[in-house]
Amino acid sequence: MKAIRRFTVRPVLPDPLQPLSDLARNLRWSWHTETRELFQAVDPEIRAAAECDPVRLLGAVSAGRLAELARDEQFLHRLTEASQDLRNYLDGPRWYQEQLELGAGLPAAVAYFSPEFGVTAALPQYSGGLGILAGDHLKAASDLGVPLIGVGLLYRHGYFRQSLSRDGWQQEHYPVLDPNELPVTLVREADGTPSRVVLALPGGRSLHAHIWLARVGRVPLLMLDSDVEENAPGEREVTDRLYGGGSEHRLLQEMLLGIGGVRAVRTYCRLTGHPEPEVFHTNEGHAGFLGLERIRELSGTGLDFDSAMESVRAGTVFTTHTPVPAGIDRFDRELVARHFGDDGELPGVGVERILQLGMETYPGGEPGLFNMAVMGLRLAQRANGVSTLHGSVSREMFAGLWPGFDPAEVPITSVTNGVHAPTWVAPEVFRLRSRYGGTPGRWDSATEVPDRELWELRRSLRAQLVTEVRERLHASWRARGAEPAELGWIDGVLDPDVLTIGFARRVPSYKRLTLMLRDRDRLRELLLHPDRPVQIVVAGKAHPADDGGKRLVQELVRFSDDPRVRHRIVFLPDYGMAMAQKLYPGCDVWLNNPLRPLEACGTSGMKAALNGCLNLSVLDGWWDEWFEPDFGWAIPTADGLALDEDRRDDLEAAALYELIEDRVAPRFYDRGGDQALPGRWIEMVRRTLGTLGPKVLADRMVCEYVERLYAPAAQAGRVLDPGTARRLADWKARVRAAWPRVAVDHVEAVAPTAADGSAELGSALMLRARVALGVLEPDDVEVQAVAGRVDAADGISDAQVFPLKPAGGQDLEGRWLYEGPLALDRTGPYGYTVRVLPAHPLLATGAEPGLVALPAEAAVDGAGVLMR
User: Residue 157's CB: how many other CB atoms inside 10 A?
Assistant: First the structure.
């Protein structure tokens, strides 16, 4: 029979064990080894069934066992130590507080919005890298003492659980998640009633949501849940699944995340006294509507739309994670219009003004579509990609928003992602480092570890992975319908002494899950080599609506089912955090072979590196930035060649096979020297731990966000009081209206050059430019010379900017004379141009308004200079 109602019966902890409740409800246990081990000791027999989730564990443990623990002095001593350690962690000063003591102008608080958060497998609210990155961001912020508030949605079915059919086809399952069985608590008003946020929907309907709180160390994570009684059935399902449903469903999710998220933050700060955020950070475009809600808030104080928008922009940071337009949410213009205005959300804010923020009104755009990333960029004064290469790709991708500027000048910077070491580094690795003087901030202790110990550690981790793989493979085959009698072969799957390669990702086509299968005979030879065999562990989920991705999974599964190779290559279904935490440490090599440059960052290789795993990757994302031969191998690519996709895949797969056969496997199996150890391999492991390790840390990433983005955003926001915001908005409106009459009328090089048109290295040209400003004044603009090497089409590359200064008043024709020196510090073909940009002390960059005036070709006198 089926229950007509579900509820949770909570255990009653004896008084001596009450601190267990606080420890279980703070997700710091997910990255704090001592606390995890304490919970594992509560009841070793059921800890595996509870998947090391303390909330589930405490709900399952018997009253008798609790009474026994309440009398166990040794356990109570460990409990007291863990509880005190948590209090010290939550209350003591950390890096951020030290910076404040030194006078740094840091924000009182930062609100961090993301559609998914991967904090722990016990809170399955993530699908892949975006969510794991968001979870690591929160955990590192907690460790550093950054006053962050996370904001997301609570999905009652999470993403999905993956299994395989007998023929290897991906199957999706959506288990119901009861918040009362998760490590979250309901936010309540002072009278005990649940706090809620409400959004207005078309037709007089409303969308209600409760707010659930997860404590991620020092960081509160607020998650909105629409499965409440006040909602009609359709509205109750808004937060049913991560990345599920059609366009309107996704639009409602993103309205709830952005608009409802701001209201949830206001509610939480009101109830707890937490400082109000001075900076709002949107992790991808999904939460972009938060800017509209903040404009609505400020409009209620008397600011007009444009003035409120300037204030909002100053305190907003936008991070883009996608290198392809297809990865961005775009909605039909009319769908968005229907949900706003007087019959929807944000009444009093003009629908056309809202639409203008997201419309693709630039060359190559589709004006009928509302683009969430475009809105995010227009509502944020500061934006970034997630690796140096991705920043460059993003500037190219969004260059249409800044017409007249070269992509290099598009105001999108980059902060390379990092990963949270305590979450992803195996405890055995931490313990070995600690024995040789390593600390969280000192990774070079790896140089002190003897070769034998390092190699034995790596073998031990590989052996743990072999055990894990066999258990998971057995469970997978049973779910596929196999009988126990068919599965004896699983006991011989993988070998703890064989070179182990890992590959685990989401399965969009550009990540090329099946590149390794391009030449199956050659792959079999690698797997079955008599002296230097290779074994491969693969995992990954395709989006439920992506049949192409599912076919790739099936292709890989069918190959790995072949009795000839199934002991050397396995596919593990249901890739998630729990699996990943075993997979990264146990692999010797981490494989990543995306189509360059479509990988934004690729943090899985970072997690592997922190465990001494070497990377074998295309030069994309973070690997393009930090690759050195000491850390692994770069797979050659054909991205610069005009090839069809199949030909490119063939070439790059051949390069991959060659690397493994000729360089990777020989180095792993080269057991020369007195100790019969692979000395050169061990040295690469040591360099990976000691030199690469500090670069890939989430602590480094979050510090960069604080110093380069959060602090400037907070300072800009503080300057923009209502009066200043109005003046800035008025100035921008005046400049935009006057800009059509701004022109560079004439440019000349005053200093002579040689008769052949060349100039000497180290000399200088004196440039003069006559500029028409219309009704603008010189204080409204900056006139610049832009110079650099030129190509055959006179395009300037590697440009330098030289300011030109006013040299007197207006001439009889109303033009202003500007002049200045142009230093000639490079040899070869060289050229320059002159341009006019708006200038205001409150602009983050001169490109921010997207306005530039360049000279007509006829206005330039001798603009090209050949250096010698």
Answer: 19
Q: Which H/E stretch holds residue 171? A: strand 170-173
Taking only Cα atoms into account, the Rg of the chain, rounded to an integer number of angstroms, comes to: 30
Spell out the residues 6+ positions from residue 172 whose beta carbon is closer than 8 angstroms to its own. Answer: 160, 161, 162, 544
d(CA 842, CA 314): 9
Concatenate the DSSP letters of all residues of 51-68 into one string: TT-HHHHHHHS-HHHHHH
List, as one string, the DSSP characters of 459-524.
HHHHHHHHHHHHHHHHHHHHHTT--GGG-GGGGGSS-TTSEEEEEE----GGG-TTGGGTTHHHHH
Cα four-point dihedral sign 557, 561, 565, 570:
positive
Please state the φ and ψ torsions of residue 623, each to the nearest 5 degrees.
-65, -35
CA–CA separation, 608 and 560 (whole Å) = 23
CA gap 818, 810 in Å, rounded: 10
- Contact between 122 and 30 under an 8 Å Cβ cutoff? The reply is yes
- Helix, strand, coil shares, percent, the chain, to 5: 45, 20, 35
Q: Are 264 and 684 in contact (CB under 8 A)?
A: no
Decide if 76 contacts 82 (C-beta within 8 A).
no
Q: What's the rounded Cα separation, in Å, for the pair 590 and 621?
A: 14
**Span between the terminal Cα atoms of the chain, in Å:** 89
Max CA pair span of the chain = 99
Q: How far apart are CA 488 and CA 492, in angstroms?
A: 8
Distance of alpha carbon 22 from alpha carbon 51, whole angstroms: 19
Q: Within the chain, how many helices (H) and strands (E) appear?
A: 31, 29
CA distance 225 to 227: 6
Phi, psi of 697 (to 5 degrees): -80, 140
Mean predicted lDDT score pLDDT of the chain: 92
Please state, as a whole number, how many other Cβ atoms lie within 10 Å of the Cβ of residue 798.
Answer: 9
Position 70: which residue type?
A
DSSP notation for 821-857: EEE----EEEEEEEEEEE--TT-SSTTTT---B---G
Euclidean distance between CA atoms 585 and 464, whole angstroms: 9
d(CA 261, CA 220): 13
And the tokens for 80?
A: 């007291």
pTM higher than 0.85: yes
**Angstrom distances, CA of residue 76 to CA of 1, 33, 80, 278:** 42, 17, 6, 42
Q: Which residues contact 579 (CB under 8 A, 6 or more apart)?
A: 468, 472, 504, 539, 572
- For residue 15, with 0-12 CB atoms within 10 Å meaning exposed, 13-18 middle and 19 or more buried, which class applies? exposed
How do residues 431-479 score in pLDDT, each as one tens digit? 988 888 766 666 677 778 899 999 999 999 999 999 999 999 999 999 9
407 prior amide bond cis, ω within 30: no
Considering only CA atoms, which of 155, 113, 163 is closest in space to residue 138?
Answer: 113
- What distance in Å separates the CA atoms of residue 397 and residue 791, rounded to the nearest whole number? 23
For 336-384, the pLDDT digits (tens) are 999 998 889 998 888 999 999 999 988 888 989 999 999 999 999 999 9
CA 633/CA 623 separation, integer angstroms: 10
H-assigned helices in 284-350:
290-299, 305-314, 333-338
